[in-house]
């Protein structure tokens, strides 16, 4: 049997097995990369940050450098762009020049949060949903035991 998806035909057997293979691949990568993260945090953070910079440069190549820079510097994207680029710089600085594992780990965690924010800022309603979930999480942490169960 064949599934039709936007002028693309895939056998049903392939479309059913792709998610399982993708999950197995992610688990294998995680199993391989967790020791790397634990043993050489600075090297992993530095290479991951360089990969993120190359990803940004590839978007600039595809969209054109001038139009991509003007898009990143637009008023609605300025805060997320500055925070993401500063996280990239902080991770590179702490891993390559300071050579401090603790600062690199802190900067890499900050980079992860800003990467999620940067990606969700492209999804319609994603940034608003992220702020809602953040406020919901912080209110959950702050509430006392006498408050209601549901955040209303």
UniProtKB/TrEMBL annotation:
Taxonomic superkingdom: Eukaryota
Bilayer-spanning residue ranges: 44-65, 77-96, 102-123
Topology of the protein relative to the lipid bilayer: Multi-pass membrane protein
GO cellular component: cytoplasm; endomembrane system; membrane
Primary location: membrane
GO BP annotations listed: protein transport; vesicle-mediated transport
Compartment list: Membrane
Its biological purpose: May be involved in fusion of retrograde transport vesicles derived from an endocytic compartment with the Golgi complex.
Descriptive protein name: Vesicle transport protein
């Amino acid at each position: 049997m064949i599934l039709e998806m936007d002028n693309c035909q895939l056998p049903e057997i392939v479309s059913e097995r792709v998610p399982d293979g993708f999950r197995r691949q992610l688990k294998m990568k995680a199993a391989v990369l967790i020791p790397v993260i634990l043993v050489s945090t600075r090297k992993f953070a530095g290479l991951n940050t360089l990969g993120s910079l190359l990803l940004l440069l590839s978007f600039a190549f595809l969209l054109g450098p001038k139009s991509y820079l003007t898009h990143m510097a637009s008023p609605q994207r300025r805060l997320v762009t500055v925070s993401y680029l500063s996280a990239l710089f902080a991770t590179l600085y702490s891993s390559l020049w300071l050579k401090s594992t603790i600062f690199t780990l802190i900067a890499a965690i900050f980079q992860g949060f800003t990467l999620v924010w940067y990606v969700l800022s492209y999804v319609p309603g994603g940034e608003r949903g992220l702020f809602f979930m953040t406020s919901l999480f912080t209110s959950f942490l702050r509430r006392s035991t006498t408050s209601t169960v549901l955040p209303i």
